[in-house]
Amino acid sequence: MYRRLADDLANLPALLDDTHRTAVGFLAGLADRPVLSAARIPDPTPLPAEGAGLAGALADFTAHWEPTLSGSAGPRYLGFVTGGVTPAGVAGDWITAAVDQNSNSALDGSGQDLERHTLGWLRELFGLSDAHQGAFVSGATMSNTVGLAVAREWLGERAGISVAEDGLAALGLVRVLSGRPHSSIAKGMAMLGMGRKSLTTVATLPGREAVDVAALETALAAAGGPCIVVANAGTVNTVDFDDLRAIAALKDRYDFWLHVDAAFGAFAALTAEHAHLVAGLDAADSVCVDLHKWLNVPYDSAVQFTRRRDLQTDVFRNAAAYLGPLGDEPDFVHLTPENSRRLRALAAWFTLRAYGRAGHADIVERDIAAARALGEAVAAEPALRLLAPVRLNVVCFTLADEPTAERLAALVERASDEALFTPTVLDGVPALRAAFSNWRTGQEDVARIIAALRKAL
């Protein structure tokens, strides 16, 4: 054994203690850490011929790379709906790395059983019935892509073919209808060979990002055959929700697959005040939920659900001599694009077991309260303009005068030591969005965010 590796194995407990102190030090400093670091990125160096051992690598990282990292795990990082990681999530992820399970195969211990157990908890959390079966994937983009892949196979079933076997050319033109789809929908369509141009944007309600159901019905009638509808449970800019029950009711008259992108909006189900926003979610044929957002587990973690696991295995089944047969309960290797993956479910299992529904409802409710407080401050500031009601956890706003992308970028830069906002465009207006999804965020953080925003004006 290489001597550095042998030394690290012999001294592993002490080295893990050092690693523990590094991680704890980073987390302990989040409250005061700059949200975006101004530290200089290290220059590239050649690959070392001889390793430095774990202690040397840790020292190098701590001295040169750790200071350059963002405070994205902290309470004032408001970009990309980025959650932090709960204490239980951290523990679950550390153990995931230590036990190093490939949970795609039944040959690899109980990893698959733990994942199915966790999926059952998540179904209950989001109000889905047992008709929905799921799997863990890397994020919302992959979750949406898996949902679209199953929908594509459903279109083939309607045409009497298998797209997975015969190819997309045998199916022909695909129609996908949506009001304000997330960018990952078009990306998934491109990866699946359906083509971005197959996405038809349907009119939304006046002043809203929610689809106009009457306009959707007109588009369905014009489609002239089976198609895919992508509904939104929480749009990116304003967290608007399509009327899922009304859309599902259209299935009585039109033949379509209903995919719901509920990447972070599904968590509205955890609060009595907002649960109505996701009423009808269970009627979907496939659902996307991103866990490294509001569940506050480490990247990368999301889940996809579908009512048609049979079609899912038609798409993703993997035939090899070393793999078991599909059976009544297919291995996860037959359900997602990945043949190998870590036991992502363990971090989710830990945080759900540690805090339950009540703990995660508390995170959601506190983040909503924080968004409302910032929204009220923006509305009261003459130099700013609120562009949409604060429906859940995102505040979308702009400058009252001359809201150019350049001026907004400069504002973000001036505030970036204390808070991060991300640029966007809403109905042609350059804007900023502040997304609250971190378990640490409290009213004292909101006060600091508001102060930083006012100072940056």
In short:
By secondary structure, this protein is of the alpha/beta class. It is 42% helix and 12% strand.
Structural write-up:
It is globular and about 65 Å long. The chain has helices at residues 3-10, 12-28, 53-65, 87-99, 111-126, 140-159, 163-166, 183-191, 213-223, 244-249, 291-294, 309-316, 345-380, 405-415, 443-456; strands at 133-137, 176-178, 199-201, 227-232, 256-261, 286-290, 302-306, 384-386, 394-399, 422-426, 429-435. A hairpin with a 2-residue loop joins strand 10 and strand 11 (429-435). By secondary structure, the chain is an alpha/beta fold. The termini are far apart. It has 3 domains: 3-70; 91-350, Type I PLP-dependent aspartate aminotransferase-like (Major domain) (Aspartate Aminotransferase, domain 2), CATH 3.40.640.10; 355-456, Aspartate Aminotransferase, domain 1, CATH 3.90.1150.10.
Uncertain ranges:
none
Radius of gyration: 23 Å
Write out the strand line-up for the largest beta sheet, numbering strands in chain order.
1-7-6-5-4-2-3
CATH superfamily of the largest domain: Type I PLP-dependent aspartate aminotransferase-like (Major domain)
Beta strand count: 11
Shape: globular
CATH architecture of the largest domain: 3-Layer(aba) Sandwich
The biggest beta sheet, please? 7 strands, mixed
Tell me the name of the CATH class of the largest domain: Alpha Beta
Determine the number of helices (DSSP H or I, runs of at least 4 residues).
15
The amount of beta strand, in percent, is 5-15%
Order of helices and strands: HHHHHEHHEHEHEHEEHEHHEEHEEH
Query: What share of residues is helical?
Result: 40-55%
Number of domains: 3
Secondary-structure-derived class:
alpha/beta
CATH topology term of the largest domain: Aspartate Aminotransferase, domain 2
- The end-to-end distance, rounded to whole angstroms, is 60 Å
Task: Give the rounded overall mean pLDDT.
Answer: 95
